Automatic annotation (TrEMBL):
GO molecular function, one term: lyase activity
Location of the VOC domain: 12-132
Alphabetized UniProt keyword annotations: Lyase
Protein name per UniProt: Lactoylglutathione lyase
InterPro entries named in the record: Glyas_Bleomycin-R_OHBP_Dase, Glyas_Fos-R_dOase_dom, VOC_core
Amino acid sequence: MLQKESSGLIKGIHHISMKCETEEELVRVKEFYMDILGLKICREWDGGLMLDTGNGLIEIFTNQAGEHQLGVIRHIALLTEDVDGIVIKVREAGYEVFVEPNDVDIPANPVYPIRMAFCYGPLGEQIEFFCER
């Protein structure tokens, strides 16, 4: 786990943001993040909501039309203690897992041993399920 330091101007990541184009997308997003992954709404307003991940927020805008595009941010990583269990739930809900659960030793100094898997979310976002081992 990263150690917290308070010496800089940035104190952490507050939230990531996604948007739904239709009411149907919003229903799928709520079902995925709330019913399958178990996140809770911490704020809701006309046109948006925020879901609590435990150490950051996912903001969902619900009032904008537009084209979904994958930008320079490639994925979001959600910390879990059970990568395999979440992958089972995600797959049973019909979502594509495109990287199966596996152990990786990131060749850092020191070596960083993790377990991880990836799936596509309801808006096409790439989600990594991540656990230190």
